[in-house]
């Protein structure tokens, strides 16, 4: 299904230009990735090989997009998994899944003649949460396997593997993951400010029939606090309203409805979660 398809893309077509805002995060990330691209030069300086990059920040801010853009930027093979898929796995299955991810990315890179591969794990906190005392947790084997794979990465290895992970609860992570040589780069991915919201709205309206009357600056101002994912929803909802009304173009009122809809949707989500 969806997950399988996501795991089997040799390369993603998301580029950093497709990510609105996040200038600082993109800068930090590309700087780190340049070490991967110029790994021989980095080695000459005795720079410890970069193994893990942790993206932290609220949901829907583009962490997955960043990981995909990173794969594109470095011409790396890309495999992805989410911490939540490890939740109800039998003992040992999670560890096997981790081994497979690393094996798959290597195979994929070799097949496509790529010199590096990226393993992306979304919601890493689910499998890498703090281990407390003697409390036995079913994901311990999975986490241990991940640590083993990370420790096994060497500079001489070909293809070079980089692990990227995302979480919105960095404080929850097991210390073992944050030790030097593991996820030792943390990059914050924050909610977009007004300028970034405008950029994101522009990205997601590029392929839509927009009326000249729509003022995206105003839409950006009215969507204070929205994440990139919510802004994408706004553009999609606006298009749905236009379609429903058989309007040839997306009009200002469609955006007003869409903002309200997305805002209300959030509210009901939150209410039902509590
Ligand atoms: P989660 O933590 O919930 O997994 P995430 O931070 O990984 O979220 P993404 O999955 O990357 O967020 O974003 C979801 C969708 O929201 C993207 O596919 C894209 O359509 C839109 N989006 C989010 N952030 C941006 C952005 N900065 N620029 C453009 N689109 C964005």
Automatic annotation (TrEMBL):
Q: Which GO terms describe its molecular function?
A: metallopeptidase activity
> Keywords on this record?
ATP-binding, Hydrolase, Membrane, Metal-binding, Metalloprotease, Nucleotide-binding, Protease, Transmembrane, Transmembrane helix, Zinc
Cofactor(s) listed: Zn(2+)
| Entry keyword annotation includes Hydrolase | yes
Give the highest taxon in the source lineage. Answer: Bacteria
Asked if Hydrolase is a keyword of the record, the answer is yes
What family does the Swiss-Prot or TrEMBL record give for this protein?
A: Belongs to the AAA ATPase family. In the C-terminal section; belongs to the peptidase M41 family.
Protein name, entry field: ATP-dependent metalloprotease FtsH
């Amino acid at each position: 299904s969806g997950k399988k398809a996501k795991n089997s893309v040799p390369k993603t077509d998301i580029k950093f230009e497709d990510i609105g805002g996040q200038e600082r995060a993109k800068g930090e990330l590309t700087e780190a990735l340049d070490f991967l691209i110029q790994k021989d030069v980095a080695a000459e300086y005795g720079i410890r090989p970069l193994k893990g990059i942790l993206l932290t920040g609220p949901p829907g801010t583009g962490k997955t997009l960043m990981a995909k853009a990173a794969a594109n930027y470095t011409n790396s093979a890309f495999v992805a998994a989410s911490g939540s898929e490890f939740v109800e796995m039998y003992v040992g299955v999670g560890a096997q899944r981790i081994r497979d991810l690393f094996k798959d990315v290597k195979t994929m890179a070799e097949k496509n003649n790529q010199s590096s591969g990226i393993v992306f794990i979304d919601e890493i906190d689910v499998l890498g949460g703090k281990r407390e005392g003697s409390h036995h947790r079913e994901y311990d084997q999975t986490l241990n396997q991940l640590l083993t794979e990370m420790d096994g990465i060497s500079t001489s290895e070909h293809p070079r593997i980089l692990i990227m992970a995302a979480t919105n609860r960095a404080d929850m992570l097991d210390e073992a993951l944050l030790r030097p040589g593991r996820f030792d780069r943390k990059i914050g991915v924050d909610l977009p400010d007004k300028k970034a919201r405008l950029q994101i709205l522009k990205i997601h309206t590029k392929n839509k029939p927009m009326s000249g009357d729509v003022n995206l600056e105003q839409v950006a101002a009215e969507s204070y606090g929205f994440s990139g994912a919510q802004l994408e929803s706004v553009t999609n909802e606006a298009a749905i309203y236009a379609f429903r009304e058989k309007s040839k173009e997306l009009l200002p009122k469609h955006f007003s409805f869409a903002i309200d809809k997305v805002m209300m949707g959030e509210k009901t989500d939150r209410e039902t979660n509590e």
